[in-house]
Each structure stands twice: as C-alpha cells, then as structure tokens.
Amino acid sequence: MARRRHVAFLVAALACATATLTAQKIKYERLNWATLASFEYELPDPLTLKSGKAEPRTDVFPEKVKALHGRHVIAEGFIIPLDVTPTGASMFVLNPDVDVCMFGIPPRLNDWVLVTMPPGQRVMVSHLPTTVKGRLLVGEEIRNGRVSSRYRIEAESAVPRGVLGG
Fold first, then answer.
1. What is the DSSP letter of 85?
2. Is residue 117 part of a domain?
3. What angle do CA 107, 81, 96 make, to 5 degrees?
4. pLDDT of 63 strictly over 90
C-alpha cells in the first residue's frame, strides 16, 4: 500500500514538473493594440446574421492580424467585467484605454479583446491596468445572430497592477 502511494506521488510530481517546464518554454509576445485596431471593420449584413446563415469571415482581417492567431501574448489594459462576483470575474473585456472603460465611450470591435479565465479562476476587478497572459484567437465569433467578438484571449493568468506578481 505504501509503495502504491509512493508511486502515485512520483507520477504526480513528474506531471507537475513537466507542466512547469512546458510553461517555461512558452515565449510570449507583447500584444500591440495598434495592430489590432489598424484597419476598418464593417459588420456583416444583419439580415444574413439573423437568418443564421452567416459564417465567421476570415477575409476581413489583414495578414499581419491573421498571423497573430494562436500566438501566446501578454496584454495590458483595463477590464470591464462581464460576470463579476465578490471573488472577481472569470470573463471580461480588456481594452487599452481607461477612457473607454471608465467613461462609457463605446469601443469599436477592433479596440478590445474578450478574455476568458481558466475554469475555477477569477481575476480581481480593479480600476488599475491588468496584465493578461494567454493565447490570442483572431476571428469573428457569432452568437445569437451578432458578432460578439473579433479577438479573444484564453487566459492563463490575469493580475491587476500592484497585486503580487502584477
């Protein structure tokens, strides 16, 4: 019985060490907000979206933006929580400018990223800049007959400035 526990412990330790080494090998690029916002974007025909026949378009992104799809990025910006609770938010909008976040100026779809935290994790809601690390996805996401986002980050972490590690 003790040997099984010892083997199980070794297997768990090896898995943890492998995950740590894998995480250390990831190279993160700083997200350039100007690149994401560098082109005009026109919404698809609303009648096509409402009919449910619209597919996400890929031809509306310049090559330099398409090339960012799937890359690991570090993005710093201000958050607008979408599901705030006393322990924080697991989904939020990240944008580069406090004016958009704090004063209600509606941003263009090119000017923000939808961020989703890993299951069970939440970010503390703050008025300070927040640093997000994760994988960037580029492409139209259509929900309920509307383009709901153009850019998304599957976050690995998100830390407001001034918090340990931020």
1. B
2. yes
3. 40
4. yes
Position 26, amino acid: I
Handedness of CA 100, 103, 104, 106 (dihedral sign): negative
Largest CA distance in the chain: 66
- Are 75 and 113 within 8 A, CB to CB? yes
Q: What is the pLDDT of residue 19?
A: 47
- Domains in the chain, number: 1
CATH number at 70 reads 2.40.50.870
Q: 60 lies in which domain range?
A: 29-160
| 3-state class (DSSP) for residue 162 | coil
Q: Which residues neighbour 83 within 8 Å (Cβ) at sequence distance 6 or greater? A: 89, 90, 91, 92
| Residue 6 included in any domain | no
What percent of the chain has a predicted confidence (pLDDT) above 70? Answer: 75
